[in-house]
Model the fold of this input.
Amino acid sequence: MAKELKELTSREENYSQWYNDLVVKAGLAENSAVRGCMVIKPYGYAIWEKMQRALDDMFKATGHVNAYFPLFIPKSFFSKEAKHVDGFAKECAVVTHYRLMNDPSGSGVVVDPDARLEEELIVRPTSETIIWNTYKNWIQSYRDLPILVNQWANVVRWEMRTRLFLRTAEFLWQEGHTAHATRQEAIEETERMVRVYQDFVQNWMAVPVIIGHKSESERFAGAEDTLSIEALMQDGKALQAGTSHFLGQNFAKAFDVQYTSREGQLDYVWATSWGVSTRLMGALIMAHSDNNGLVLPPRLAPTQVVLIPIYKGDEQLKQITARLDEIAGELRALGVSVKVDDRDNVRSGFKFAEYELKGVPVRLVIGPRDFENGTIEVARRDTLTKEVRSQEGLAEYVKNLLDDIQDNIYQKALKFREEHTVKVDTYDEFKRVLEETPGFVLAHWDGTPETEEQIKNETKATIRNIPVDAPYEEGVDMISGKPSTRRVLFARSY
Amino acid sequence: MAKELKELTSREENYSQWYNDLVVKAGLAENSAVRGCMVIKPYGYAIWEKMQRALDDMFKATGHVNAYFPLFIPKSFFSKEAKHVDGFAKECAVVTHYRLMNDPSGSGVVVDPDARLEEELIVRPTSETIIWNTYKNWIQSYRDLPILVNQWANVVRWEMRTRLFLRTAEFLWQEGHTAHATRQEAIEETERMVRVYQDFVQNWMAVPVIIGHKSESERFAGAEDTLSIEALMQDGKALQAGTSHFLGQNFAKAFDVQYTSREGQLDYVWATSWGVSTRLMGALIMAHSDNNGLVLPPRLAPTQVVLIPIYKGDEQLKQITARLDEIAGELRALGVSVKVDDRDNVRSGFKFAEYELKGVPVRLVIGPRDFENGTIEVARRDTLTKEVRSQEGLAEYVKNLLDDIQDNIYQKALKFREEHTVKVDTYDEFKRVLEETPGFVLAHWDGTPETEEQIKNETKATIRNIPVDAPYEEGVDMISGKPSTRRVLFARSY
Done:
């Protein structure tokens, strides 16, 4: 077994360390020399690129176009929207100077004190303010609406405690910013995009999610309503995987963006914003992986199938590799991404462990006996099972197998979530569940920030969201005993 | 004629104003509220996305993978490579603080003086330092080499005078950073990538370029050799469209990156870096466009063909649009990107002007008579010519026409460059050409920075590069009279 693999901490031993080990050892990302900023390594970035491509296609299919806005935001912009300033103008990277000079004492470079900016610039933590300041010039009439723009960008939030992918000072994301003539249209957009996220996370990442409204205290700073998708990780903690905000007319008012309606009336524009980030990488890793390494859903795996020869001597290596190359060609013709690993300086056991660690969904192996018999070993990463079958019709078989694996990974995650979602009616039970079998807890809530706060302080569990499809059910709040008409989703979270 | 178009300054009147008008009015980009930073608008970004996709495919076809490194670089990193510090640690955005707070006086937010960073962070102007600091941990043995990594990112250089796309404080680019075991391999990579750039700029952007070595004074700070591609704009000025640097062992030594060779010897790693940026958008616009607006090469045009009905009354509009939709479907099936513009609230003359302004390569128009006769008007943006032809076999015809247009635009630019490239042998002639018929000037140079400097100061012309395919030719320097063995490429430049 490969050395790297031996060093992977097990989930049971230390879940948090297992996650970090996995991210680093599978070559996804690592910490950089800059506090809180990560390096996304080629293998991790290849997965992110697949995510980007799929999401971008979905955005375009729903009528959106991409654009790019400045990295820097003048400090004063944050003060324009009252709630936004409290939410975002806090832990930020602040640019105060625009020049370095040689240190007069001769030791390296120092900041040139004469090159101080008149107004400090903030490295964007999110772009509502700079974008609405821009939209002001783009929108005069109803004919200019809707504006359906998305941006792929880096953003910076000066987090004190960071974790690779899950919480980093700089991260990559997309942020959609749309402008509409009516409240109704903006609300529909908010809902449309959270459903696009659900579609992507479930059907590409194979992670089931619950759509719901955030409680007022967890809402985006400046939003009238925030919809989120919430996923459950293997340690029973929730992870917010994406959000879509109905911003009302708040930013239009803050930046004075009005339009003339068809009827000639002047009104403020309605807004939405929505985003997902490299945090999704964290969700992908944590939802499916095991003690052998990553488990990647085939639709996002940079390499879907690896082909490995087992051989004695150069002649066999050549023969078997030639056969594997043929099979690889057939798979490529079906649109499958494959890799033939014919390295002769590492043992096949090392290769097996390496591709398990990297989460390659299917491994195909031909040994000397297979070569003679026209058979091949097919191993699945998700179930760690293997079978020997005929080489005939293999490409089609593997193509279908990838679909099965995609579905199986999703079903497994769904089953886990269902087994870790419980309804509770008393606070004692609530606390016991969180300690003993952590996961999603559905409980009644009286809708007040007070009980929400108390529960958070006492149990570290928060309201993840108020599910949009929660059925009507009469009940009472666990703590206050006040009436409630539907259950909300609680969990401890990332 | 549309209002926007009337307001487009002509090239002859004011070239610089024409360029700026065009960028803004065609919806490519605009200045933002942040000094020197632009907003890339959806139409401009759509072209950039096409560039990115084509380049990214070319990088991957030559064995490169993408990764992502931090936006911020610790100030001290710049001091590690002696020349690099002079070149890049000057006009930079400097992050000094990580927190804002409410102004005690109650007016907005201010920088929290307690949140000063121990070491300032520089917003990357280029990433050699942070990347080689990272490579240090990735490279131990010859087995870890080569590293062929590219990054798509934003960078910031605090330029004093900015122009949309051509020179902005923040811009988007890709930067390749490769590590090799041998000097020869790194030199080959440097050459390979400048040829990839040439291929892209010539075959996608339809702009001919000249590959050559930069003179020592124009070299990238920290490079042993810089290769560039130089294009000629319609005003006779040169534009450096891309660079590829052979960095020797300079960054490996600065960041102590050594590897053990196959023979067990320890040696420093050899490096290259190469990049192109949103500046290419400026080259694309300036190389081909005219007083009617943009002229886009079909391979980069977001919309390649626009279809417009001319009609009287709703019935005709419906009939003709239905026919146009059929044709659009046939074109889409051939992989052509099309748009049917059946808006009934703007006149067709307005539409014609709008798509001319936006540089859509082909316009197809069906009027009532065409509808009856089975004919269609085909108009080319590049030549501004039109013809009426049968609707039969139209899709194939248009598909081929797009290839012809791509080629014609390139040939036109090539012809322009050839007509504006002259050999001169005396300094008087040199100065006269620059004043009267500006363009590329091929002249002998004695290879010293002194004459280079003198020419630059007296004429504003610089050595664009020393063409790699310049034939051996004995001559003498225009100024010093010292011997020279080949001509170098001079021009005034962007």
Q: What stands out?
A: Chain B has a mean pLDDT of 96.
